[in-house]
Design a protein that fits this description.
5-stranded antiparallel β-sheet; globular; alpha/beta; 7-stranded mixed β-sheet
Length: 451
């Protein structure tokens, strides 16, 4: 461990973290984290006074922006009253939050089981689907991420699960994605026959409809590259579920709470799922909380049957109090409306960037959940770094990421993707600031473009 006597305050903070804590999804040597001292709005500040524009809302969860003291006050007040009760007890905050979620959720999704985060919401959605239907199989997409616990990780197709491959849970069946930019069937969206949907129906038939409990779909694709659904895709999947009496679970962990310009991405697509698993934006990341919102039909099934689900910190009163305040902030500050307006503005501006930067192959966006895909050649669509690329193929993208940080941006860069998902409170001037930084960094990818 490092000698600490001569370290600056910033270096000391970083060194203590490197010496005594572990970092997610990373080698533990050779990393250079930002030492965040405080944050406000769309900006992070380190101990040396440097400012970083947070263009990924943390992990696409700090939807209301950083440092909103209304949440601080709500949390303090709740802790002064009671900090914890068992899930068998109730609090005012729990009831208020459940009532508000029922009001904003689509259809008859009126009852909520509170969890500690998104992965736990997905885990309990899978368990509940099996309990309710008596069936075992769950159908999910390859290019999706549902969380890092064993069940949620298995349900996703993200390659971060591969080192744990031997421990995947059984009865998860994967299907291809409606990745129109790289269609698995070589089709164009304007003339295809939605092979991406008929593919799912064939899988249902192969697996036996009587064995399939649920289809799990992200409300809107996130960390896999914001893969844009065809406009009728989820509606057709909903129809398949109805045809075969299969439940539809919407993973709105990332896409919920205004991120897409609506309360939920389900609203964008005009569907009503049987369950919504969500987290992140429910407290805007201020405290850990997740939620599994279910239909009255499912909830009533357990009126006289035991609901075999539970967590020590389910409906934690302090987290619920934070969520109640955050949901009110969305409305008071008109953040969901702003997400839609700023999203449209970003789409216009990135279209202009595409004219300047040949390496921008595609931009996919809904509200403030967007992703630039960088390519070596637009005609061949050869990616700047392929899906699950090893470190040896990440040279260009690592340089892009480093340049973004150097220019004062905190952004989510993965494979050949640069994500654009700022807090919902962002202004047009701040969008311009961020896109100017991205434009400068992408010049590195342009230099690697192959004509």
């Amino acid at each position: 461990m490092a000698e600490t006597s001569s370290l600056s305050a910033t270096q000391q903070v970083i060194q203590d973290n490197l010496d005594y804590t572990l970092f997610s999804w990373s080698k533990q040597k050779g990393i250079a984290p930002i030492a965040v001292k405080h944050a406000e709005g769309v900006y992070l500040y380190d101990y040396d006074g440097n400012r970083y524009l947070d263009f990924s809302s943390g992990l696409i969860n700090v939807n209301i922006g950083h440092g909103n003291q209304r949440v601080t006050q709500a949390v303090m007040q709740q802790m002064q009253e009671v900090s914890y009760v068992t899930p068998g007890c109730v609090t005012q905050a729990r009831g208020e939050l459940g009532k508000k979620l029922a009001a904003i959720s689509p259809g008859n999704l009126n009852k909520t089981l509170f969890t500690t985060g998104g992965a736990e919401a997905i885990e309990n959605a899978i368990k509940l689907a099996r309990l309710y239907t008596g069936r075992s199989k769950i159908i999910a997409r390859y290019r999706a991420f549902h969380g890092a616990s064993y069940g949620a990780m298995t349900a996703g197709g993200d390659p971060r699960k591969l080192p744990h491959d031997a421990q995947q849970v059984p009865n998860i069946v994967h299907v291809e994605d409606p990745y129109c930019y790289r269609c698995p069937w070589g089709k164009e969206i304007t003339s295809c026959s939605r092979e991406c949907v008929s593919h799912i129906e064939r899988v249902i038939e192969f697996e036996g409809p009587e064995n399939v409990a649920a289809i799990l779909m992200e409300g809107e694709s996130g960390s896999s590259g914001c893969i844009k659904y065809p406009p009728d895709y989820l509606q057709k999947v909903r129809a398949l579920c109805d045809k075969y009496n299969i439940l539809l679970i919407a993973d709105e962990v990332m896409s919920g709470f205004g991120r897409t310009g609506k309360w939920f991405a389900c609203d964008v697509h005009g569907i009503v799922p049987d369950m919504i698993a969500t987290a992140k934006g429910i407290t805007a990341g201020y405290l850990p909380l997740g939620a599994l919102i279910v239909s009255d039909t499912i909830a009533s099934y357990f009126d006289d049957k035991v609901l075999w689900l539970g967590l020590t910190y389910s409906a934690h009163p302090v987290c619920c109090a934070a969520a109640v305040e955050v949901l009110q902030i969305y409305e008071d500050e008109q953040l969901i409306e702003n997400a839609a307006v700023m999203g449209a503005y970003i789409e216009q501006q990135v279209a202009l960037l595409q004219q300047q930067h040949p390496s921008i192959g595609d931009f996919r966006n809904t509200g403030l959940l967007g992703c630039i895909e960088l390519v070596k050649n637009r005609a061949t669509k050869a990616p700047m770094a392929r899906f699950n690329a090893p470190a040896s193929e990440m040279t260009v993208m690592n340089k892009v990421a480093a340049r973004l940080k150097q220019l004062g941006m905190y952004a989510f860069v993965r494979w050949n993707y640069v994500f654009i998902a700022p807090p919902l409170c962002i202004t047009k001037a701040q969008v311009d600031e961020g896109l100017a930084i991205i434009s400068e960094a992408i010049r590195i990818a342009d230099d690697a473009y192959e004509n």
